[in-house]
Design brief:
504 residues; alpha/beta; Ribosomal Protein S5, domain 2; 2 domains; eight-stranded mixed β-sheet; 38% helix
Length: 504
């Protein structure tokens, strides 16, 4: 007796179909699973056996063979529990259909027959629509994210008997409610930008970084509000577009960080890993590749507080993602590509003790110690940071009597207008922001006027800018022009962009 059902698995952030074939034949009781299952999949034998018995069905006391096709791709995860159990029930006659080709079945079984949520449902729903399949049967915890995909009939089952009923009588299956459009909100921030007194230049740099998607490094003594500034960057970013929300939701679904019952993410991600993080946890990887922190920050913010305290090897793996906007994780069998376009904001002290340049506190560090501390950030990594800003200690008078600065909502409105200009300008390109421009479009869209070119030529000689640094100055100047509502990149825009490279 043979039964066949459709399921799916995820590698990277892409899904691929998996056929579950269940054969029950006469012989000594034995449960064999083939098709390169990992430990989690092999353990499903015990979960399936208990779930079938505790749901009131008879587990076949015969020789059972389960094949997960394609057989040359390793399978991982607990999402195959439900289709395996339904395949066994099909061979015993409880499921009237021996071959279920129109429905993708997903779900992890509890020992009592209940169905638990799984990872990666959104990429699976997208792949199912691409393959022409119109129906999903899955746990209710994952219904909201699957319903985001148009043209898919999403059915839910809370237990094994409900799943059996849904396949025997599809017309009576419970459908997932229509997805509600989430409110488009920015990144949840720790407070309002108006809370920060003084620090006019760092506030301006924060606005420029948000408007153009540029990377930002804040350097200053302890207590100068570097962390406060960084954590308010999310609040001035524009809301997610639908396409951006779809990308972010798919990544978090695969990583298992999507809250149960959640649909599309409505806020831009903000990730702030601790400096003890490993390079695999930062960029992603593992035997079965999973997204790392930089992919979880896709379309949002990655904040590295006390950047020099991170391991040098961890920081160096950022170089390629910062340039390409993606991470490629190669394994012997397959290669996974994770998107990683984010705004990097980092904070550091000017020296080990932190008080170098502080007028109120004396620095105790020797020049050798300072050079060694700053040398933890390599030249190639610094070259990929568009804005490097000094954050001086805030005077007491500014804290006690200083006027509040602009509120987050006011700055976010200017940033949103600048982003809209960029999206309209680059409609025919793959770039969404000025920071994503590469090659010829930089010269086309960011070319300064004659005076600006002369200023830039002089700065290259004095500052020793690399070719990458030259391009990044042009792109920052383009963003400053967008904030000013200027079609052309003028000399004052070049001058402001250059001042963000002086600290380097």
């Amino acid at each position: 007796m043979l039964a066949s059902l459709r399921s799916a698995a995820v590698f990277g952030v892409e899904a691929y179909p998996v056929h579950i074939e269940v054969d029950v034949s006469f012989g000594l009781p034995h449960f064999t699973m083939v098709g390169l299952p990992d430990a989690t999949v092999r353990e499903s034998r015990d979960r399936v056996r208990s779930a079938i018995r505790n749901s009131g069905f008879e587990f076949p006391p015969h020789r059972i063979t389960v094949n997960l096709a394609p057989a040359d791709v390793r399978k991982a995860g607990s999402s195959f529990d439900l289709p395996i159990a339904l395949g066994l029930l099909a061979t015993s006659g409880a499921l009237t259909r021996r071959a279920v080709d129109d429905t993708v079945v997903l779900g992890e079984l509890s020992l009592d027959g209940g169905i638990n949520g799984i990872r990666g449902v959104l990429p699976i729903a997208v792949a199912a629509r691409r393959l022409g399949l119109r129906r999903l049967l899955l746990p209710p915890q994952n219904a909201a994210e699957a319903s985001v995909v148009d043209g898919i009939d999403v059915c839910v089952a809370r237990s094994l008997p409900e799943a059996l009923q849904a396949l025997n009588h599809p017309e009576t299956a419970e459908r997932a409610p229509a997805p509600s459009t989430p409110a488009r909100t920015p990144v949840a921030s720790d407070g309002d930008l108006a809370d920060i007194r003084g620090q006019l230049l760092p506030r301006r740099a924060l606005e420029v970084a948000a408007a153009g998607g540029h990377n930002l490094l804040l350097s200053g003594p302890p207590g100068a509000a570097k962390t406060m500034l960084a954590r308010r960057l999310g609040g001035i970013l524009p809301p997610l577009t639908f396409d951006e929300a779809l990308e972010c939701t798919a990544i978090h679904s695969v990583a298992g960080t999507l809250p149960a019952g959640a649909g599309l993410l409505s806020a831009r991600p903000f990730r702030a890993p601790h400096h003890t993080i490993s390079n695999v946890a930062l960029v992603g990887g593992g035997g079965i590749p999973r997204p790392g922190e930089i992919s979880l920050a896709h379309n949002g913010v990655l904040f590295l507080d006390e950047m020099p305290e991170f391991d040098r090897r961890v920081l160096e793996v950022l170089r390629q993602p910062l340039e390409e906007g993606r991470v490629t994780v190669a394994r012997a069998a397959r290669t996974a590509v994770f998107p990683a376009r984010f705004v990097l904001v980092a904070a550091m002290n000017p020296c080990p003790c932190g008080f170098r340049g502080d007028e109120r506190r004396r620095c105790q560090c020797t020049p050798v110690q300072v050079a060694k501390y700053r040398g933890r950030l390599s030249g190639p990594l610094r070259d990929r940071i568009d804005l490097i800003v000094d954050v001086p200690a805030v005077p007491v008078s500014a804290i006690t009597d200083g006027a509040a600065g602009e509120a987050t909502a006011v700055v976010r409105e200017r940033v949103s207008v600048a982003r809209q200009l960029q999206q309209a300008r680059y409609r025919a390109l793959s770039a969404r922001t000025n920071a994503e421009l590469r090659g010829a479009p930089v010269a086309r869209f960011c070319a300064p006027d004659a005076t600006g070119r002369a200023l830039l030529r002089s700065a290259i000689e004095r500052l020793g800018l690399s070719a990458r640094g030259y391009d990044r100055v042009l792109k920052v100047a383009r963003t400053i022009a967008d904030l000013a509502g200027s079609e052309a990149v003028l000399t004052e825009h070049i001058a402001e962009a250059l001042q963000y490279r002086l600290l380097e």
